Amino acid sequence: MNRGAARDISTADAFYHYTSKQAFIWPYDEQARLIGEHLYVDMTSAKVERLNTDDVVTTDWVQQTAKALLRTL
Questions:
Q1: Domain of life of the organism in this record (predicted)?
Q2: For residue 67, which of 15, 24, 34, 39 sits 20 to 30 Å off, Cα-Cα?
Q3: CA-based nearest residue to 5, from 21, 13, 17
Q4: Which residues neighbour 51 within 8 Å (Cβ) at sequence distance 6 or greater?
């Protein structure tokens, strides 16, 4: 994360969105079997953005929405 990003987190009970550019590499053996995973993160691209509470999908919202949809089945 860039040095300024950590300072952007000013409120512990707020919601934040973290983004960065990433590359996943999955090597395979000669028989096409997955043999590992390598993750590379471009830390210079890391950004932390505080979210508006109205834009956050909470577990309560998901539960209420799912119950309403299930009642229609």
A1: Bacteria
A2: 15
A3: 17
A4: 14, 15, 16, 17
